[in-house]
């Protein structure tokens, strides 16, 4: 490698490492990061040895300017959103333009280091070029040298990616934490993979959808709405009341009502259920977007994307959300989550969903830390102070954090909870964090009651997704007293609790209707007495549906009577677990397939606004 090429390599690599140091001071000495960053620079410049110095020098100037621009743009975006730029965001100028007015305040004097080399490059290159004048290398050798640089670059980059995937095997499927990717493989490596993912999906939905297909979707939506009675039960029982929704991390239904070593696992949720509507046949319908998918399901009544995460792939679609509809009714809408605002692209997506305010990690005092961040108790205490300042009615959407996988939290803030033979096992740790989450919820609900907020509000609590992954199913089978965790039992355990407390604890009781996150929004709008006839929702009001159905993202479905593992061609009686002839469920299979297909079309073709107009004008 000639001296001028090596110089450019060092300059660009230095800038990339300085950038990483600015966004994460703790990880810049990581060997995989350095290797991967160096590898991406080698891939960028491998061609240089094939060109004469006079030709490659202007190209080096251009390359250095482009990389510098990318670094500074990402740095300013990071300071504003705690995130880095991505292709879907760059394709939507409105997001990037939101930073324009703040560029001057976001730029620091220390950032000048990134452009310090640009005016000096011609002089430095001329001096370095003296070392190359007497060296004449045959073209064949230069080809071999350039290919060697490329191979080394690919190898180094691949090593960084390999090390990242060892600890986060699904991170490239959903891109749930872009900053984490940059911290582990470098900025250019991230942008390369991001561009690949973007263009991989870009052509989906490129051709316009036919009018006939749009009308087919409209008819499907109208048919779903026609299933509802003209005078729905409990319509408007919570009209004008605040809506407080708590999405509890990894809260699975099997813990409800259970005890271990003589202690209730969830005493506060059990107490809340006694004065609430409790849906015990409510399934998680999340996919590659995890927690963000649960948020999406509850707030727009659409399925998450079939590939990747909707929050990442479609952050600037049109959505007719719960927050947007309640804003039309005069509600102040706020979402609260004590984690980085850029995680799952929330800082962008919440604006798209119509929330008036996003209170993130940046707004909370980090006085108690456990697991991934602020403890649930501190989160609830501080969130309540924000809520007390709101004009009523308001919609407050709170997303907890302490009970996040892998449950190996520092437990200094936890009260003692004896998990018996499961102590220090995966399941034992899970039960401990869920008990803590329940304790935090209990304190929060007590405070709501003391301050008179509870009786002025509809309170909903649900789990976002399963807590026990399939590779730990033997723990769950043992805890539940099952001989084996077969397919039937595994699907049954994909339930999460949904609890809705009405003002004054009216209309309590357990509802067994099969449903899932998709059904949250229509059920809540009915309780609040808000007309939803023009909103394209795929869910149903669980209080008024003649029968329930939960279609999981991979195609399995559950009705009030049956469980169907569509791809395996197997069905079971939901109550007994005995085999049921799958051919008798053809209508349900067709309904499940169409529901998923139409949801994908609505998202990938961005049809919500158009479908809303269709529904408004429908006879």
Walkthrough of the structure:
This protein is an alpha/beta fold. Helix content is 46%, strand content 11%. It is built from 24 helices and 19 strands. Strand 6 (332-336), helix 17 and strand 7 form a beta-alpha-beta unit.
SSE map:
Elements: H1 3-23, H2 31-45, H3 53-81, H4 87-90, H5 93-97, H6 103-106, H7 121-129, H8 139-167, H9 171-174, H10 178-185, H11 187-202, H12 211-226, E1 242-248, E2 259-260, E3 263-264, H13 267-273, E4 277-279, E5 282-283, H14 290-300, H15 310-313, H16 322-328, E6 332-336, H17 346-352, E7 357-359, E8 369-370, E9 373-374, H18 376-387, E10 394-399, H19 426-450, E11 457-463, H20 473-480, H21 487-492, E12 498-501, E13 509-511, E14 515-516, H22 520-528, E15 549-551, E16 557-559, E17 562-565, E18 570-573, E19 579-580, H23 586-604, H24 608-617
Parallel strand pairs: 1-10, 1-11, 4-13, 5-14, 6-7, 6-10
Antiparallel strand pairs: 2-3, 4-12, 8-9, 11-12, 15-16, 16-17, 17-18, 18-19
Keywords:
46% helix; alpha/beta; Alkaline Phosphatase, subunit A; 2 domains; 24 helices; 8-stranded mixed beta sheet; 619 residues
Q: Strand share of the residues?
A: 5-15%
What global shape is seen?
globular
The chain-level mean pLDDT equals 91
The CATH architecture category of the largest domain equals 3-Layer(aba) Sandwich
Unreliable stretches (pLDDT < 50, length at least 5) are none
Total separate domains: 2
Between the first and last Cα atoms, what is the distance in angstroms?
A: 73 Å
CATH homologous superfamily classification of the largest domain? Alkaline Phosphatase, subunit A
- The assigned structural class equals alpha/beta
The biggest sheet amounts to: 8 strands, mixed
What CATH calls the topology of the largest domain is Alkaline Phosphatase, subunit A
